[in-house]
Amino acid sequence: MTENKLAIIVLAAGQGTRMKSRLPKVLHPISGRPLVGHVLTTASRLGADHIEVVVRHERDQVVEVISAQYPDATIVDQDEIPGTGRAVEVALDAIPDFDGDVLILSGDCPLADAVTLTAFVEEHRSTGAAATLMTAVVEDPTGYGRVIRDAEGDVDRIVEQKDASADEAAVHEINAGMYVFRAQALREHLPTVGVANAQGEKYLTDVPGLLRGAGDRVAASVVSDVTVTYGVNDRVQLAEVGRLLNARIVRHWQREGVTVVDPTTTWIDDDAKLAPDVTILPNTHIVGATVIESGAVVGPDTSLVDCEVGADAVVRRSEATLAVIGAGATVGPFSYLRAGTILGAAGKIGAYVETKNAQIGDGSKVPHLSYVGDATVGRGVNLGASTITANYDDVNKHRTEIGDEVHTGSHTVLVAPVKLGAGAKTGAGAVVRKDVPAGALAMSVAPQRNIEGWVEKNRAGTGAADAAAREQSAE
Ligand code: UD1
Ligand code: CA
Known about the structure:
Elements: E1 6-12, E2 29-30, E3 33-34, H1 35-43, E4 50-55, H2 59-69, E5 74-77, H3 84-93, E6 101-106, H4 114-127, E7 131-137, E8 146-149, E9 155-159, H5 166-169, E10 173-182, H6 183-189, H7 207-213, E11 218-222, H8 235-255, E12 259-260, E13 266-268, E14 273-274, E15 279-280, E16 284-287, E17 291-292, E18 297-298, E19 302-305, E20 308-309, E21 314-315, E22 319-321, E23 324-325, E24 330-331, E25 336-337, E26 342-343, E27 348-351, E28 354-360, E29 365-368, E30 371-377, E31 382-383, E32 388-390, E33 400-402, E34 407-408, E35 413-415, E36 418-420, E37 425-426, E38 431-432, E39 441-442, H9 454-458, H10 463-474
Parallel strand pairs: 1-4, 1-6, 4-5, 7-11, 12-15, 13-16, 14-17, 15-18, 16-19, 17-20, 18-21, 19-22, 20-23, 21-24, 22-25, 23-26, 24-27, 25-28, 26-28, 27-29, 28-30, 30-33, 31-34, 32-35, 33-36, 35-38, 37-39
Antiparallel strand pairs: 2-3, 6-10, 7-10, 8-9
Residues 11-14, 54, 78, 82-84, 86-87, 106-108, 144-145, 158, 160, 174-177, 203-205, 231 line the site of uridine-diphosphate-N-acetylglucosamine.
């Protein structure tokens, strides 16, 4: 049945002038995805036969993102004729044989979810109208097209704000910019839409009035939750819409069993996955494709970008990117895990530690003030406070290999490339430039020499000399 065919047209050709940005409006990200990406993710869930995105402004930048991330969407280029009506017209011209229903969405309206849109399409189909508009009754209709109804309360036409009379402008029912049309209705009327209006554009919003004039019915679906209609035209709206979307994502995970202590300061990207009984403490950002397993506690004041956090791990006041934190491991406070960090089960990265491209074995500890980069660390290792891998010689990066059960003394410098065999130890302050065999103790610091009476002789009259004299006379 052709009636059940669905094409989705996403409008993304506009300029987005009010963003005042080098980045095209529809590419501004919220919840880890560009605005148009949210619309396309939702569109892909509706089982449509075609998804088309209409582009023009900064076309190459927009197309690059869409073809890389949403290969199912077809790109359609709008020509120099401006307006939403022209955008839909070129999209329909690209699918000349299609004659089902056309769902029209805006690339700058990311809050319309799949449940709302599925119900919207169903409603259109059940009424048999030629077109169904999504509308909302709002306190402040400024900037939107107004929905003008006739004496019977049926939709008569849409008037853009800039073309509205005072009476029309006083209407609080607005056009949300999402529609379902029968393809045939658009093909028939769009060619007759002109540009004789305040903006000199071919308005899609002229079509409902033309349909009425031809005796067709136009239905309206009034949404109860106006937030699904919110669009982004400037940076203020970008933040508002971003906060609403984040609140929705946080609520979703709370309902899945995640404890979120402070939803207003917790930011979770759309692609992240959290298991039941995860706890998120305030001021925490869960970014990208981060996955957190059951029982883990993350935060406060923590950012995880594309990380994996194992069951029952604890990550406090730290930042990590492309890191894997093993089950039962602990991280922080105040540490920085860079790409390629893999911390084994029950391992520890403590306070003020930076790691990069470092595989740290199960049960191994890097407790304080260390840098571990380009290193392989075995199991049960303890790197003493302030152990540093000197991995860079100004030209190349080199690896450090540390065997199982190695313990380094405080302030050890491991000058890579270097290898410490299993069970080896280093003395405090050792500078290790040569490989250490398994079970050996590496010392590089000269034996200590005490010069008796040095302070009395060289610093007479100071507090130190007085204190030394007092201690000596007491002995
Ligand atoms: C549009 C509607 C208005 C509605 C509002 C809801 C028209 C004429 N007006 O106004 O009734 O209340 O949305 O948010 O449709 N676009 C193109 N090609 C163009 C122009 C725009 O693809 O030539 C795209 C834009 O990128 C955007 C969408 O269409 O995604 C809407 O355009 P915009 O300029 O934001 O329209 P509004 O003034 O918001
Ligand atoms: Ca808009």
